[in-house]
Structures are given as structure tokens and as C-alpha cells.
Design brief:
The chain is an alpha+beta fold. The chain is 25% helix and 13% strand. It has a 3-stranded antiparallel sheet with strand order 1-2-3.
């Protein structure tokens, strides 16, 4: 079952290129077996693990789906008094959503970064009329995106957040026509050189800049992933199984490539906002 989850999660966004946007650790402890999500939440709370978590259960292999459980006391936007069913003996409302495995990184990123509230998801699937924590949620939350199709997935993936060296790894332009291609449009724009982009598994794309950084200075920009680059793995990372494995090409070291930051951990807010806009527009097109 662990391999089923790993493969589904790996097919989701960000997993194949650079650092995964969302990671999951699988724990299999006897005291978890047979417990309700509510009891699991309380058990982990008592151990000091108050973060959100994923539940893998006996239905996961057949449904290819996981349960995402929110922290205790989570405030869900848009939920009014009377919108929630309360059960005797349950002091807290358990907020959880049943999600297609490969969509978990995509959905969790959107929720954590405020791209769209979970209440929006629940309402779209009629799980907020009112919200019932005991509802089996048989209709899975899913994006309907084929994450194994790189052309389709590439239109959704967040670009790489890159730190590069001006004049060596970055080229500049003040050409109006070129800078109009940048996001957002600007009078000064920059992009990676062909050599820098190629060795890092990225594509060239103009990105706005407030000023031209002197030679040797650090430049922050974004670049889309080159899904056909040989530096990216093609198989699943099953290091300890007989299943498919990473491709034979090793990733270049930091010395030989750009720093593709986990910047997603940086407060590089413009990138987050762009990503949120893409997530919302994609959801509008995919969710029916």
C-alpha cells in the first residue's frame, strides 16, 4: 500500500522537479489501526503533533485516495453557525477531506497558501449543507488533471524560483516587446542564459525586474521547468523495491547548477500570488 501512495503522490505536482512542494511521511503504528479519524486526531494532539496529517486506510488502493485531516481548532472560512453537525462526545469538529492521491500536493498547497479555502471545496461537492464530519465523502475531491501527462501538468506547475548571478547566469533587456512577455509586464526584464537554463533543467522566460543588478550580483527570478530535460528523473523513486527507479542521469550539484530555491519557503510573495491565480483558474476549468 505504501508504494501505491508514494506513486500517486509522486505523480502530483512538484514531486518530479526540484524539491517537492509538499512532503508526506508514512507511519504505520499498531495504535493507529482501527481508530476513527477523530480518535487519531486526539491521539496525535496528545503527543504534541498538532499539524495537519494524511490518513491511509483500507480503501486507499482501490479508490486511489487519501484523507487529509486539518489541525484541531481549524477555522474554516465561510462556515457559519448551524453549518456544522455536532455529535455527542466530540468536543471539536473534525475537518477532513477525501482527496485523490495524486491531487494531494496540489490541493494542500492551495489550502496552505490561501489560494482557495477548504470550504470552497466542500461546497462544490455538496459537503457543506451542512458539513457532517461523519459523512463518508464518497465523491472524491479531485482536479481531473492527468498528472502523468507532462504537457497538461506543466501548465499547472509553479515555476522554479531561481537565484542566479547577474551577467553570468542572467541576461537583461529593456526592449519593450520582450518585457511585455514578462509576468508581470515591466520596463526591465531578465532571464536565464541558455547555458544556465539548460544545465538546470529549466526553460528561458523573461521575468520582471525593478532594476538591473550589477555584474556578479544575485538576481531572483522564475523559470518554467523543462519537462524533457535529461536531468529530471523519469521513473519512481523506489530505492528499496524492484519497481521502476530514477533515471540513470544524476542531478548536477549546486556547484554546477543554479540554486533552485525551496522558495516556496521564501516570502517571495509575487510568486505565491501568481501560483494562486493559476491554481484558481485551473480549478475553474477543471472542476465541474
Amino acid at each position: 500500500m505504501n508504494r501505491t501512495v508514494q506513486h500517486g503522490f509522486y505523480n502530483g505536482p512538484y514531486a518530479r522537479f526540484g524539491d517537492p512542494q509538499v512532503t508526506v511521511t508514512i507511519h504505520d503504528r499498531p495504535e493507529f489501526h482501527g481508530k476513527s479519524h477523530y480518535d487519531l486526531r486526539n491521539l496525535l494532539d496528545s503527543e504534541g503533533m498538532k499539524d495537519d496529517f494524511i490518513v491511509v486506510d483500507e480503501t486507499t488502493p482501490d479508490l486511489d485516495a487519501l484523507w487529509y485531516v486539518l489541525p484541531t481548532g481549524s477555522i474554516v472560512d465561510g462556515v457559519k453557525p448551524g453549518d456544522v453537525v455536532h455529535y455527542p462526545g466530540e468536543d471539536q469538529t473534525l475537518w477532513h477531506v477525501h482527496i485523490q492521491t495524486a491531487d494531494v500536493p496540489y490541493e494542500v498547497f492551495g489550502w496552505r497558501e490561501g489560494c482557495h479555502p477548504i470550504s470552497q471545496e466542500l461546497a462544490q461537492y455538496d459537503y457543506l449543507n451542512p458539513y457532517d464530519p461523519h459523512d463518508p465523502q464518497d465523491r472524491l475531491i479531485k482536479s481531473n488533471i492527468d498528472w502523468t501527462n507532462l504537457e497538461i501538468a506543466g501548465s499547472v506547475w509553479e515555476p522554479a524560483f531561481v537565484s542566479a548571478i547577474s551577467g553570468i547566469e542572467v541576461e537583461w533587456s529593456t526592449d519593450k516587446a520582450l518585457c511585455q512577455q514578462a509576468l508581470p509586464t515591466a520596463t526591465i526584464c531578465a532571464r536565464l542564459t541558455v547555458e544556465a537554463a539548460t544545465r538546470s533543467g529549466l526553460l528561458q522566460a523573461w521575468f520582471y525586474q525593478g532594476r538591473i543588478i550589477p555584474l556578479g550580483g544575485e538576481v531572483f527570478l522564475q523559470a518554467p521547468y523543462d519537462t524533457k530535460s535529461p536531468i529530471w528523473p523519469t521513473g519512481y523513486p523506489d530505492v528499496h523495491t524492484s519497481g521502476p527507479r530514477f533515471g540513470p542521469v544524476e542531478k548536477p550539484s549546486r556547484k554546477d547548477r543554479l540554486l533552485i530555491s525551496a522558495a516556496r519557503q521564501r516570502a517571495y510573495r509575487n510568486g505565491y500570488h501568481n501560483a494562486c491565480r493559476r491554481v484558481n483558474s485551473q480549478r475553474a476549468a477543471q472542476i465541474r
